[in-house]
């Protein structure tokens, strides 16, 4: 993989991790209130998919979406300020953590109703198809969302009319607290797409290069008129469902084993020139040793000193974002009313 | 110049005009294309504009309504037809959680030029699951607008105005009105979309209604006139927002208010109208505002019972008469 792509992937993942860990801290301090669903563990999916997308593509996501917005390029300041509910938030403080919208970057929302985003994604895709544009819509959703009726309805329509949508399932194996084998008769999510003749593939969602490559291939097919595509990324969230959820339904051994497959460690492993120490290998877990070693032999574009630089840059961006959010004003009730009637234009209603 | 036109033809003409004028307008729904719509509102349009702009959908109300929301987000002007209001229950997430909230919760970043056309009301013995009125459900949703055209002229005007608007608007069309006739002047200047219409001036009692029951109220007013009671009939034309000024001006003139609705009485549109006008016109009212509404009952299939479950012309006449000339108490009668 090219050096600059690797850099981007790694920077995005580091920024996302730093941002989310800091958000958890700010939540603890009471600066962020309400629901907060964090992304650590799943960074390879967002980074891989969004770095493979074009600026002209659209993104529709769920409620674990701050990281998606960051990786799409929404300034960390504006995302953090939205989490704080402040006027300078990307949604003016009206949306909150689950409703990040950024029209400029075609980030079409943050939806908090599971399964609500598919119809919106196919609607955007329908408009693209009508206008015959070389654009695509990326629709993120979790494994818990595939049992909603809209999943089947929307995949059917997407396939029926060959709409330019890339469905990306972030399979973290849990619908909040219910593990996939307890919520789905078919646990290999990608197989469901076959019911609608949508080409689907399953990739290791802890491996950013594989996600990136799969997304490139899928978007390429879409742009060549291949109709909707489907990618299932197997991943894992290191934290509970939200800040309100300690995730106690998951065995400690399972969480530890998954954390050993940390996508950032994997990406670094791929990028680093140096060989890992024995201690690092042991810590990384048996199943990633082979991967790490193999990758480091064939690739190797990044020195440890650069790595540290990326980490520090991410931390600095996040620190700046927190300061910005802290100093941003509370939105006014007048602003809230203005948003209620923002599309009234000069219409005379009565 | 006006021409006698059927209600569905007026909708069809409005749709045709908008499709012709603006390439971002398209319509979709079950059987709107090849078949031309269950009530013919889109008849002939697929042949003229092609299947991308007049799209037959699978039976997936939740998703094709949401498709409209997505398309509206990127500048299209979709007109979603939901075959009957009863099926709209399956699309409420897209309507309430998405269409109504996205412009607000995005901090004003997106327009929502979405129109949802919904036939509804009690037609003729369609059974409880096909004889609902759900205006009370959507009236309670901030961010939505609701038009209830009762005449071909209003259907034409309000559909065109709804398509031109950047806000999400639901048109509740009554199933018994599609084949009703009335004058249509496509050149006449339209009043604002949500302004109420005074269908019949009167001095003794104000009857406020909407949709098909506005027509029944006008018929009742003619009956009352024979009796010397001059009823003023206000057709709301809109349930959100409501033209309170027109309503209040009438109540201040007649001092009596009767609200007529086909929807169930409990927590219905009438309750909102009675409460608001009761507060605003308390001093002007000679008697409490009175509601005449559908029974709080699932609609019976039997024709006689069905008819008895919603206000009929005779019921409106009786209610207005009672309001204007309350039965004398024995004491009052003796005093005379």
TrEMBL record, chain A:
InterPro entries, per database record: DH_E1 (IPR001017), PDH_E1_Alpha_Subunit (IPR050642), THDP-binding (IPR029061)
Residue stretches making up the Dehydrogenase E1 component domain: 12-265
Cofactor names: thiamine diphosphate
Top-rank taxon, per record: Bacteria
CDD domains to which the protein is assigned, alphabetical: TPP_E1_PDC_ADC_BCADC
Reactions it catalyzes: N(6)-[(R)-lipoyl]-L-lysyl-[protein] + pyruvate + H(+) = N(6)-[(R)-S(8)-acetyldihydrolipoyl]-L-lysyl-[protein] + CO2
Keyword vocabulary terms for this entry: Oxidoreductase, Pyruvate, Thiamine pyrophosphate
Function (record text): The pyruvate dehydrogenase complex catalyzes the overall conversion of pyruvate to acetyl-CoA and CO(2). It contains multiple copies of three enzymatic components: pyruvate dehydrogenase (E1), dihydrolipoamide acetyltransferase (E2) and lipoamide dehydrogenase (E3).
Name of protein: Pyruvate dehydrogenase (Acetyl-transferring) E1 component subunit alpha
Automatic annotation (TrEMBL), chain B:
Cofactor: thiamine diphosphate
Gene3D superfamilies: 3.40.50.920, 3.40.50.970
Keywords: Oxidoreductase, Thiamine pyrophosphate
SMART domains per the UniProt record, alphabetical: Transket_pyr
Domain Transketolase-like pyrimidine-binding per the UniProt entry, residue ranges: 5-180
Name of protein: Alpha-ketoacid dehydrogenase subunit beta
The organism of origin for this protein: Falsiroseomonas selenitidurans
